Amino acid sequence: MTDVMFYHLERGGLEDVLPGLLEKTLERGWRAVVRASSRERVEALDGFLWTYRDESFLPHGAAGDGEAQPVWLTDGEDAPNKADVLFLTDNASAEANTVGAFTRCVTIFDGRDEDALSAARAFWKEAKAAGHDVAYWKQSPKGRWEKQN
After folding, report:
1. Which residue, of 41, 42, 83, 87, has the fewest CB within 10 Å?
2. 3-class SS of residue 110
3. Count of beta carbons in the 10 Å neighbourhood of residue 66
4. Top EC class per UniProt (predicted)?
């Protein structure tokens, strides 16, 4: 079964946490696909990942960039890089029965957005019912991720 992890944003936005999670993914030797809710959002993330920090580089690409990179950005279901991890961002969704193709599925949702919160709750129930291992991570007051029981 797939590990389905829920990251509840409370203190920052996606841009504050996604690069670090992607860096940890690559450190493990894994590949990632980041699914956003629209083509415009993919383009914004693409630009952001080139500039988020001067001293590092996250190899990534999207449709139209040529070959598949270790991090693939999409607003669809494509994963040409044979990703190990699926990141769902910006209320992008997946069916619990389709995430089994990945080692891990990471849903990053904004807890201040009622629609995102409802969608995350529904996906939690669906993933649990499908037999996936689910875990919930919340930001501490200092911004670190803490696994909740």
Report:
1. 41
2. strand
3. 7
4. transferase
